[in-house]
C-alpha cells in the first residue's frame, strides 16, 4: 500500500490527517482537535473558533470576538492560522 501525504491547501490546516475545515463542517465551532484519536492531552491541542465580530475603538484598537472561551488557553499566537482564507504569508 502506498502512503500518500495529505497536503492542505493554503486555506486549511491538516492535523494527524484531519482537515480542520472538515472538522468544523462536522462538529461546528468551537471545537478541539488533539490529533491523537479524541483524547485531549494536557497540552498541544488545536482549538478552532469562529470570529463573530471585530470591534474598533475610538483610538483604532481592534478587538476580535470569537465564539469560544479562550480565557484559560495558553495560545501560541505565532502559530495561529485563518481557515477559509488563503494566505501565502506563512508556511
What does this structure look like?
This protein is 9% helix and 23% strand. By secondary structure, it is mainly beta. It has a domain at 14-69. Strands 1-2 form a two-stranded antiparallel sheet. A two-stranded antiparallel ribbon has the order 3-4. Strand 5 and strand 6 (62-66) form a beta hairpin. The longest helix has 8 residues, at 20-27. The two termini are 29 Å apart.
Could you estimate the helical fraction of the residues in percent? under 10%
Average pLDDT works out at 78
- Weakly predicted, low-confidence segments: none
* Order of adjacent strands in the largest pleated sheet: 1-2
Radius of gyration: 15 Å
Report the count of strand segments: 6
Q: What general outline do the C-alpha atoms trace?
A: globular
Share in β-strands: 15-25%
State the end-to-end distance.
Answer: 29 Å
Number of helices: 1
Largest beta-sheet details: 2 strands, antiparallel
H and E string? EEHEEEE
Helix/strand-derived category reads mainly beta
Question: What are the salient characteristics of this protein?
Answer:
two-stranded antiparallel ribbon, 91 residues, globular, mainly beta
